[in-house]
Write a structure and sequence with these properties.
Elements: E1 15-18, H1 22-31, E2 39-43, H2 81-87, H3 91-97, H4 104-117, E3 121-123, E4 125-133, E5 138-146, E6 152-160, E7 162-165, E8 169-171, H5 178-182, E9 188-190, H6 194-203, E10 207-210, H7 214-225, E11 234-237, H8 258-266, H9 269-278, H10 280-283, H11 288-300, E12 310-313, E13 316-324, E14 328-335, E15 341-346, E16 348-351, E17 355-357, E18 396-399, H12 404-407, H13 417-429
Parallel strand pairs: 1-2, 1-7, 2-3, 7-18, 9-16, 10-11, 10-16, 11-12
Antiparallel strand pairs: 4-5, 5-6, 8-17, 13-14, 14-15
Helix pairs in contact: 1-13, 7-11
Length: 470
């Protein structure tokens, strides 16, 4: 079957965004009032959704509602969370609820409201390749428009002076457990798909949750609340030495400020490599409220003098796993401190094993000759989140939520999304549509403070008046 081409404008756009998750949705919202900026955003999914398998009832976002798509860069934006509440006539209920942290489902609904009303977003558009056209001094972006069934409907190509990659993260399943996940008829799946399988898991006789982070805690708590008292038959295991609370002290949270991000970026690469795993409790621990809720539920179930039928064991890694007979699953466990090993038979496994940054190599294959990499062959990023490219490339490629190795623990944090988007737009336009604070933390990170950089601007004079739908 021949797939017909789409007719895109020959004149280059100022910006093409690839991926529409919270980060690029933030960028699109802040770019919207910049009338001189011709921007379009592509996403292969049919609509916006944010971790739909983990929108567990009562689960909250771990950042305050002010960490919406725009507020920390522009509190007057019509795309703020408070604007969303106003359109729903819910400002007064929210005011009286006195909630600083909103539920995940509400954050998802807010983002979907923005995505449904913001122009310039194109869902069901799968980006296939990105290349640099040295003759025209523009990037070529090839894409496929998908139909309602996800099949190719038409092909297109657009030209742009700048690109922002916001492809997000993907659920991580350890290689030695992947065969179990992929096996048919075995209830082993990543927590990202929890709600899709929740009914089957609740019906299982014995359930094991693997992973001692926030998702593992939320899944375990939800299962615990819905299992019969005294017959819970739940195991919760994780590699960390404790079911540890996430760092949430006032000064500890300053690791999620622009000040710390700039400090981290200026550190030597070997120092950054040592810091990242050591700072796991800043972003991979469990919310103290969730831990309290787990303990409260366990305590409530012990009021009659018995102990709930649950096992919570930190410091345990799953070495491997397999199927027994037709329905049972056997996990081979090792305690990292004791050095002891055992086997656990269970009927269902939820892998709350986290997320990894989606690799950019496939997307950037056409730019590989121009990319500058670090000692681990990862793309280098400038402070303004721009890929370091060969000087012959006059356009810019910015990256969202894929710079843990260069910008630190704040990379995936929703609280920095608006600031990062504003930083990118300031760099991209060569102006300052969003003035950003020079200082954001009481903590002084380091004895020698890096001087604020004046962003290099390569495309500032080439923005074109908008001619399309905005």
């Amino acid at each position: 079957m021949t797939i017909p081409p789409l007719h895109e404008p020959e004149s280059p756009r100022d910006l093409v965004g690839i991926g529409i998750g919270p980060c690029n949705l933030s960028l699109a919202a802040l770019a919207h009032p910049l009338a001189e900026l011709d921007a379009v955003f592509y996403e292969q999914r049919p609509a916006f959704d944010w971790h739909p398998g983990l929108l567990i009832e009562g689960a909250t976002v771990q950042v305050p509602f002010l960490a919406d798509l725009v507020t920390l860069a522009d509190p007057t934006s019509p795309w703020s969370f408070l604007s969303y509440l106003r359109t729903r006539e819910r400002l007064f209920p929210f005011y009286f609820a006195e909630r600083f942290h909103i539920q995940r489902a509400e954050y998802d609904a807010y983002c979907r409201w923005v995505s449904q009303n913001l122009p310039g977003l194109r869902f069901r558009h799968q980006v296939d390749a990105v290349r640099w056209n040295s003759e025209r001094d523009v990037f070529e972006v090839d894409f496929t428009q998908l139909d309602a069934d996800g099949e190719a409907e038409s092909l297109g190509r657009t030209y742009t002076r700048n690109i922002v990659l916001g492809v997000g993260t993907a659920p991580y399943v350890p290689d030695h457990l992947r065969p179990l996940v992929e096996a048919s008829g075995v209830p082993v799946f990543h927590a990202a798909d929890y709600l899709d399988h929740r009914a089957a898991v609740l019906a299982a006789e014995h359930v094991t949750v693997v992973g001692s982070g926030q998702s593992g805690a939320e899944v375990f708590l939800d299962l615990l609340r819905h299992r019969p008292a005294g017959r819970e038959k739940l195991h919760w295991i994780g590699r960390t030495e404790a079911f540890a609370p996430m760092e949430y002290s006032k000064l500890g949270l300053e690791h999620f400020t622009p000040d710390y991000t700039r400090y981290f970026h200026a550190l030597a690469e070997p120092v950054r490599e040592r810091l990242i795993p050591a700072q796991w409790q800043l972003h991979k621990g469990i919310d103290a409220g969730t831990l309290a809720a787990v303990h409260d539920e366990l305590y409530r179930r012990s009021l009659d003098g018995g102990w709930p039928d649950v096992v919570l064991t930190p410091g345990v890694q799953v070495r491997t796993g397999g199927r027994i007979a037709t329905t049972k699953i056997e996990l081979h466990l090792e305690h990292l401190q004791q050095g002891s090993r055992t086997r656990l038979t269970t009927d269902a496994v939820v892998l709350a094993t986290g997320y990894h940054e989606r690799p950019l190599d496939r997307m950037l294959a056409g730019l590989d000759p121009y990319l500058r990499r670090d000692s681990s062959e990862r793309p280098r990023l400038e402070e303004e989140f721009r890929l370091v490219l060969d000087p012959s490339v006059t356009g810019s490629v910015y990256v969202q939520n894929a710079g843990l190795h260069t910008h630190g623990v704040g990379t995936p944090d929703l609280g920095l999304a608006a600031w990062r988007s504003a930083t990118i737009l300031n760099s991209l336009t060569g102006k300052e549509p969003y003035p950003l604070p020079a200082r954001t933390a009481f903590t002084t990170f380091g004895l020698q403070q890096p001087q604020p950089r004046i962003p290099q601007v390569r495309q500032a004079k080439r923005l074109t008046p908008l001619v399309e739908d905005r």
